[in-house]
Amino acid sequence: MKHLRHAQAGRHSQGFSLIELMVSLTIGLVIAVAAMSAYLGAASASKMTDAQTRMNEDAQAALNILVQQLRMAGTNPVQANRSDLSRHNPVYGTTTFATSPGSFALSAFSIRGCDGKFSNITTTGVTLDTLTCGGTSTLPDSIAVSYEADRYNTIPTSTGVATDCLGNSLTTITATFPATTPTTASSGTYAVADNRFYIGTSTVITSPSLYCKGNGGTSTAQPLVENIEDMQFTYGTVTATAVSTAPTATTPTAAPVAGYLSAYEVVTQTDLAPLPLADRWSKVTSVRICVLVRSENPVVSDSASAKYLNCQGTLVSAPDLRLRRAYSTTVSLRNRQLWLP
Q1: Residue whose C-alpha is closest to residue 224's, from 68, 50, 52
Q2: Domain residues of the chain, as ranges?
Q3: For 22, 40, 230, 314, which has the most beta carbons within 10 A of its beta carbon?
Q4: 275-307 pLDDT, tens per residue?
Q5: Does residue 178 have a cis bond before it (omega within 30 degrees)?
Q6: C-alpha distances in angstroms, 26 versus 15, 31, 58, 140?
């Protein structure tokens, strides 16, 4: 009996067999691999979700800025003492008036686009009338917008002065209009914002960004939204013969859009080509905007997953493994009211 007890105690002190140990290690390894796979999958999904959320926010910010600016393009035609040279409107506007400061010249353009980037878009002293565009291009488009700015449609300074797209204060202009009666003359004060938008980079911000160059103060161009890789515009226009230049009505009416053209086509389209350049752009009543946004960092696992549809609807490969998506919208130019015959 004593010998039996010693034998049983010896067996208990021997521990696990090699087979038992291997089985235990295998089960532990499977559990560890499963846990690691679940963690990596959750981390990858979280990274993808974060990238998509950031892209959506960047796209919304860029489109909101562009839509807001385009809706204000031009002067408000139903306010007194307002003028827009491109309207040819004897009811609400006039082109014979003096301005102070005398260096100010009212542009004939309310909106002007370029397939690609205006070559002198950031040059100091260049007006909408003197912007130069090289013609057709597959590069990101640029656009310039001019509108009557005030403390309500811009973010005013602490003293209530209207600002450009970068928050720089604009010069207050006084316009003296012809006398409405033999003994009186009318005048109005206003400010004009001249904002240009394009895609660019800098030595500090190397990622492609939506930039703006305003006309307030010294107004050096500044980035507004990062990771905007491409920007394309098409312009809804009316035909040259659809709009009367000598209306008899007292209320402008929206003219139907004849088609959407690129910036180059607005300038060269057969129906519009006989008109002066500013009058061709005055026929634009809506704008389609497309921005291509990329993720800040590579987030996809392979090049097949990185493919995307660009603003032209073409499937494109992205070797840098960044996520990309095109966002688009259409905006009506509220202040570009035209007269039907």
Answers
A1: 68
A2: 45-332
A3: 230
A4: 889 888 988 989 999 999 999 999 888 888 889
A5: no
A6: 18, 9, 47, 56
